[in-house]
Amino acid sequence: MTAVLFDFSGTLFRIESTESWLRAVLAEAEVPLAEAELARAARALEVAGAQPGGAFPLALPEELSGVWAVRDESAELHRAAYTGLSRQVALPDPALHDALYERHMTPRAWAPYPDAAPVLRTLREHGIGVGVVSNIGWDLRPVFREHGLDTYVDAYVLSYEHGVQKPDPRLFTVALDALGAEPEETVMVGDSRAADGGAAALGCRVHFVDHLPVAERPDALLPVLDLVGAARRPATPTQA
User: Is 181:2 a contact under the CB 8 Å cutoff?
Assistant: First the structure.
């Protein structure tokens, strides 16, 4: 194997809890909300699927079904889908819906999984190309930079920048071309069988991880090193 492609949300990083997300926005807007009401609103937002990177909607409103299906094909569609879901929940100030969307795009709203840094570092030390292939509606590069992981990524392929979303093979093809890698020499790592599994159509090997809170998933990425042989051979001297 000469390259590894990673999904972003639920694979390398995890979004903060819905309650933390709402609490941060309320604090910044200086909008008071009793604890019981905050907990209720946070749960309602989670059920609605209003937090990008969080839970999917339990029941998708019919009027949002169209935009939801293509939400990752542009920044405008992504915002419309998620703010539309957020507005299904009553909040003290209507401006909070846009503030919640803005919050989720900030590096402080995301935490890397514990094994993300060591796995990415080891891949770099062994000269294995790393790409991030994400269905997303905004630029996640600042998240990687803020958490010190950008130095290990050779290419970012983001759906909204190409107008196509996983599992469409075209998105994976862009990443393979950027890394100069062949499909049969590449592993795709992700948490979604429906989306990330699309890489298999090109001949890539696919490794799935569970989309769990950071504290509950300390080492699910480590098997990737075995898949590419990096755990069994010394690092390249010029890159160590």
Answer: yes
pLDDT in 10s for each residue of the chain, 240 residues: 899 999 999 999 999 999 999 999 999 999 999 999 999 999 999 999 999 999 999 999 999 999 999 999 999 999 999 999 999 999 999 999 999 999 999 999 999 999 999 999 999 999 999 999 999 999 999 999 999 999 999 999 999 999 999 999 999 999 999 999 999 999 999 999 999 999 999 999 999 999 999 999 999 999 999 999 876 555 555 443
CB 125 within 8 A of CB 235: yes
Q: Is the peptide bond before 169 cis (omega within 30 degrees of 0)?
A: no
Range of the domain at 190: 3-14+110-228
Question: Any residues with CB less than 8 A from the CB of 240 and at least 6 apart, and which?
Answer: 125
Q: Are residues 126 and 207 in the same domain?
A: yes
The answer as to whether 238 is a domain residue is: no
CA 32 – CA 36 distance, rounded (Å): 12
Smallest CA-to-CA distance from 13 within 123, 146, 166 is with 146
Closest CA to 133 of 161, 109, 152: 161
CA distance 13 to 160: 19
| Residue 209 structure tokens | 């991880």
* Amino acid, res. 179: L
User: Quick one: residue 203, left, alpha or beta (phi over 0 = left, psi -120 to 50 = alpha)?
Assistant: left
User: Both 23 and 76 in a single domain?
Assistant: yes
